[in-house]
Amino acid sequence: MTTTESAAAAPPKIADREQVFVGGRWVESTGDEWIDLVDPFTEKKAARIRSATTEDVERAVQAARTSFDSGEWASRTMAERADVLDEIASRLESRVEELTPLGVIEVGIPVAVSGPTQQMTAGLFRAVAAVARDYSTRDDRTRADGGVSRILKEPTGVVAAIIPWNGPIGTIAFKVAPALAAGCSVILKTAPEAPLSPSVFADVIGELTAEGKIPDGVVSVLCADREVSETLVTNPDVDHITFTGSTLAGRRIMSLAGERIARVSLELGGKSAAIILDDADLGHVMQSLPMGGCMQSGQACIALTRVLVSRNRHDEVVEALKGALGFLTMGNPWEQTTFLGPLAMERQRDRVESYIASAKEEGATVVLGGGRPAGVDHGFFVEPTLIDGVRNDMRVAQEEIFGPVVSVITYEDEEEAIAIANDSIYGLSGAVYTADLEHGFEVAQRIRTGTVSVNATIIDFTVPFGGYKQSGVGREGGVEGLEEFFETKTVHLPATG
């Protein structure tokens, strides 16, 4: 692994956000609490944002409830709402230069990666708009008695969209875009660790609300701590909660929502396996697997953190992975040549280091990394880490680490590889590497996970994405993601004549 350091490349000055965004407008908060955002590279305060109070949440919910019940937004056609999504996309696109440094400061993503990531958000809004234009909310079916039953799709209502810190602007597109396309009103609750890029989204919504393109009350954007956020989940005027984050938090949200049988969509954690079959081309594997395991310094739920290899090919795979991961550039995220930046916060670094320590205690061997990079005296860094001799019952193999830590697990035959891949509470992503694509497809069908790539690490959120087991409930992306925000109503009409 190489490191980069430069005094010339430095973060820009970020303005504080002194108000809360309720119902399409920036307004004064009912409280005086602030959330400080710490730059993960400099370890200094970068900005602060006003923390929403319980009263602010209630104001946002009531604004959403009033706007939805008025029917002004929901009564527009799908095409009309799709036009607004395209407008949001264009305005976000015009703000890429503003959004790019925020990705670095919020998540630690290197600037060279942050730019394309922010640009992708506009594409996701446009993709949802395209799906919406082709989507029919009515299907007439003739019954056996000669009558007609009309199957209608109606918006789920007031949506609480709760997003994580590791991909704030992109997750907005996964949740808010389809919710708006369906005709819902939305309260977007951002993570305290990453409030700035959602505030730029709020600016866009504010412009469109002021211009009358989005009605008053349809969108609120709030940042709040856990206690205040739970009042959003338990509010009886919230019809649907959609959440992305840890499985632990997802369990809590589902429990709270279950008390009043509120609709819930969850995209949760992962512990994805990459199965390298004996006929796989190792050079091809190394083109995608290192990135698949260490994207965003491992701060991604879809990261391929378990590498399954046969005993026959174990040594060569470990050696190749060691070389590939060691080649990744880590350091100053403002340098264009940096591939891996710091972790988003100090507690995350501590968490990752504790998992590496536990792997050693359980008998595994760290063959690369395992500590903080040499030559970098600040920043919440953990080196790309490769751990060998991992058993699938170890904590490092069973629990989501959210850092650049890849574990190698040895299998005896293909059947055992599949069994190991499925031996997890998670089921979000995965990969199969083989010279035979059709056989790779057959193996993929046997892995209990929501997405599997064959011979690649393919990331495409315009098609269905979501998890099995404790990786979530529901899907995001494509027509399936849009349908999460519809209720189905059947209206029976009698036969005539």
From TrEMBL:
SUPFAM superfamilies assigned to the protein according to its UniProt record, in alphabetical order? ALDH-like
Domain called Aldehyde dehydrogenase: residue spans: 26-491
The reply to whether Lipid metabolism figures as a keyword in the UniProt entry is: no
Which residues are annotated as active site? E267
Task: Please list every transmembrane segment annotated in the UniProt record, as residue ranges.
Answer: none
- Any keyword Acetylation? no
Q: So what family is this one in?
A: Belongs to the aldehyde dehydrogenase family.
Listed name of the protein = Aldehyde dehydrogenase
This chain's source organism reads: Rhodococcus wratislaviensis
